[in-house]
Amino acid sequence: MKPRTPPDSPLLFDTAPLVPDFRLELKARKAGHWPVAGADEAGRGPLAGPVVAAAVILDPRRIPEGLNDSKQLSAQRREELFVQILATATVSIASSSSTRIDETDIRKASLDAMRRAICSLAIPASYVLTDGLDVPPGLDCPGQAVVKGDARSVSIAAASIVAKVTRDRMMARAHSVFPDYGFAAHVGYGTAQHRAGIERHGPCSLHRMSFRPLRKTENGPETDELLSE
Q1: pTM attached to this predicted model
Q2: In sequence order, what E strands does the chain have?
C-alpha cells in the first residue's frame, strides 16, 4: 500500500498559542495613525459590581515584558505589570455601574465605559484597537475590533490587565462594605458561595438585577444559570 503523503499545511487547530505583539500598532502607524491605544474591559459576566474598561497607549521604547491576556496571568503577575504599565504608559480607566448595566444592557454599558476611557486619555489616540467584536460608537478617531485582541496586541493586553486589576481592587473594597457575599474571593461571579450569600441575605445595591438568577419574572426570581464570559 502506497504511504500517504503528509499535508503541506498544518492542521487547522495545530497552532502555537497566540502571543501578543506590537504588529497591529505598527501597521496603524504605517497608515498614518499615531498614537495607537488599546482598549479592553473586565467584568461582563459577574452577577455584581461594575464593568470596568481601560485604554492604554504604550511607549514603544518602554513596553513592559510579559504582557498578555490578563486571564493567562497570575494575580501577582497582573499586579506587577499593572504597576509597570502605569509607570510607563498613558492610561485611562472608566466604569459602568450595576445600575447602568440594568438600565441598558451589559454590552451597551461595556462599550460606553470603553468609549469614556478612550476619550479621557491625556494624549488623544489617533487610532484604537479594541478587544472583541465592537468598536465603541462616538469616538473621535477610527478603530479596529480585534477578536482575541488581548492575545494579539500588547496594547490591548495592557488594557486588559489594567481593567482586571482595577475591578478586582474595587470588589475587594466592596467586600469591606458588603461582607456577606464574599466579593473579595469571587469578585462578583456566580459561585456557590456568592449564590448562597444572595439566598441568605438577598441582593445588595451592587447586584445586577437584570441578570439571572436575580432577574424577576411574573412567576418570581428566575433560577437558571448565568453563562459567565
Answers
A1: 0.88
A2: 36-42, 51-57, 90-96, 127-131, 143-146, 216-217, 220-221
Strands 36-42 and 51-57: antiparallel
On whether residue 219 sits in a domain, the answer given is no
Percentages (nearest 5) of helix, strand, coil residues in the chain: 40, 15, 45
Query: In which residue are the cell numbers 488594557 written?
Result: 159
Q: Are 55 and 118 in contact (CB under 8 A)?
A: yes
**Mean pLDDT computed over every residue of the chain:** 90
Q: How far apart are CA 103 and CA 152, in angstroms?
A: 33
Q: Which long-range contacts (CB under 8 A, 24 or more apart) does 141-144 make?
A: 141/33, 142/33, 144/24, 144/28
Check the annotation: does 41 bind a ligand: yes
Per-residue model confidence as pLDDT tens digits over 142-198 = 999 999 999 999 999 999 999 999 999 999 999 999 999 999 999 999 999 999 999
Q: Is 40 annotated as a binding residue?
A: yes
In a domain, 218, yes or no: no
Question: Is residue 10 a part of any domain in this protein?
Answer: no
Total structural domains in the chain?
Answer: 1
- Cβ neighbors of 209 (< 8 A, separation 6 or more) are 98, 102, 203, 215, 216
Give the domain CATH number at 34: 3.30.420.10
Does 8 belong to an annotated binding site?
no
Residue 60 belongs to a domain: yes
- Full residue range of the structural domain in which residue 98 is found: 22-201
